[in-house]
């Protein structure tokens, strides 16, 4: 089994390397010291399994998983202590190991991962829904999404939500508009809407989510429909329900 | 204990009111019975003061008959009886006093005045007594509520102390398990480094437990604890963690509450350095500014890092503790501009008390 080790601590990686050396049929194809490297190395090395640390600089293990999306290989999370994440792991039957990793547990987890690979069963962690649930569990209670992660070719873009103007849905994708550019990401509108702060982002239309700070004015377009004029000059359609939501938020 | 007799200021105020009452009574006598004002004052003022003295005894009845718990009939009956007895005593003394004053007087018209005054005296005495009783009841209520307040404050302080104790002794599980993970890793590659790490961990746990029990420690002890903590974290973070100390020599002997600096450094590492790919410098400064001890912990941080769970807990714990200990005389300020996070703690610079107790025997 081809394995990638992701951890920001040199010693933690060294320990996993040492432990994996005792397991037959395992090949360590690479090591990453942070989330960005991990995303890159998964693409380049296409490992079958990633041992993924959760708390890392820049990108957490959950965010790495989100960025990998459908290309994500099987994942076993490794963490020293994170009671909220552990609860989420249990709920979604996601495999995890606790540091310092006990060799028998490591072997058992590797065997489970291998069995899934053989039977071609997707790892529970790899489904989009589970990834989102894990991300939500990693956030402090009641906290909303504060940044959007988008992959563009080999680059990872981190967009703080306050920089967003609006989000447009198109087929299976969302277009994130910020700083005069637009970025595409595979995600559903309702899923995103649920994670954003409702006091800032309003669903003004079936296909549009607006950052309320960017609204300049509203114009009546026809009976029961309006146009939102943004500070950037962009025009967005506003439905009747969207208009009601806007009015409720502003008043 | 009598609430008036036990407090001289209250007692003085009490008799001040009676003196005023006596002067008023003298005025009434002078106007309604045309007695000379000097005589009226001589007669009325001592008598009202006497009534004041007699009224002090009502406190014992006030205490025996709490207004809210005694049946109204019993309350009224007892007070009526007591008032009759007190007023009878007072009136007889007043009449004797009046007659004695009149005898020495040059004015024969005054001879029968005291007897004519009796109805007025009963009326005025009853009012005075009534006011005194009400006053005593109010005092009793006031004292009771103040005692309750004091007790609830005491309870709050106790609860706070217990809370602080539990905050102090908290060992971050994240720190513990990561350190153990480092030990596990080092055993395979560098056994002597693993041993060093075990010793450091033991020293840190021992120090934080023993220092946490104290109410105040020498600042140099807190520094030692912080250095041990940094040495452990340096094993984990390697070159990413770069501590720099700037400690003014005179601060080392000051007395500080335990665990005021180490949690701030822990915060700097876990919410600052740990989120930076290449780490950075943690600056730890201490100096004395007039009567204040200033502690500064500064670190770079990633403003785009997601807010991690538990951010600010360390600082808030320290803030809660110095708040309880020093109130307005201490402050903790947080500044996060320009990707640098800076915590400034100011508290009274207290010299370490010299060890009291028996001198060591040779």
Care to describe what's here?
Chain A is an alpha/beta fold. In chain A, 34% of the residues lie in helices and 33% in strands. In chain A, helix 2 (35-45) packs parallel to helix 3 (61-68) and helix 3 runs antiparallel to helix 6 (128-138). Chain B has 362 residues and is α+β, with helices and mostly antiparallel strands. Chain B has 2 domains: 8-165, no CATH class; 169-351, 2-Layer Sandwich (Heat Shock Protein 90). In chain B, the strands form 2 sheets. A 5-stranded mixed sheet of chain B has the order 2-4-5-7-6, with helices on one face. A 3-stranded antiparallel sheet of chain B has the order 1-3-8. In chain B, helix 2 runs antiparallel to helix 4 (72-103), helix 6 runs antiparallel to helix 7 (191-213) and helix 6 packs across helix 8. The model of chain B is unreliable at 357-362 (pLDDT under 50).
Integer average pLDDT of chain A = 89
Helix % of chain A is: 25-40%
Largest interface: chains, residues each: A-B, 31 and 30 residues
Overall number of structural domains of chain B: 2
Q: In the residues of chain A, how many domains can be counted?
A: 2
In the CATH hierarchy, what is the class of the largest domain in chain B? Alpha Beta
In helices, the fraction of residues of chain B equals: 55-70%
| Count of DSSP H/I helices of chain B | 10
